[in-house]
Amino acid sequence: MQTFLLILIILAAIGALVSLIRGIVIFLRTSAADAHGTGPSVSGLRQNKMMWRRIQFQALAVVLVVLFLMLGRSGS
Questions:
Q1: Buried b (16+ CB within 10 A) or exposed e, 36-54
Q2: Which residue, 8, 12, 32, 67, has fewest beta-carbon neighbours within 10 Å?
Q3: Three-class SS string for 2-14?
């Protein structure tokens, strides 16, 4: 069970890293017209979506780490 949780933790961390990188890339591709336009831009919405995904992956990783530590503690 611990091996399975460890694999899930690694996958969640990789998901957070990929979401972070994609959000940064989208941010770097934002044009001046996007930044100074009226209303939310497509680029801004995509940035927010990627950063929200990063937060979700990080929360999942934290929950899995807590479960991993609880299982390790009960096993000893």
A1: eeeeebebbebbeebbebb
A2: 32
A3: HHHHHHHHHHHHH
In degrees to the nearest 10, what's the CA dihedral of 12, 25, 43, 33? 160
Q: What angle do CA 58, 45, 18 make, to 5 degrees?
A: 35
Percent of residues, the chain, with pLDDT higher than 90: 61
* pLDDT tens-digit series, residues 13-31: 999 999 999 999 988 888 7
- What pTM does this model have? 0.81
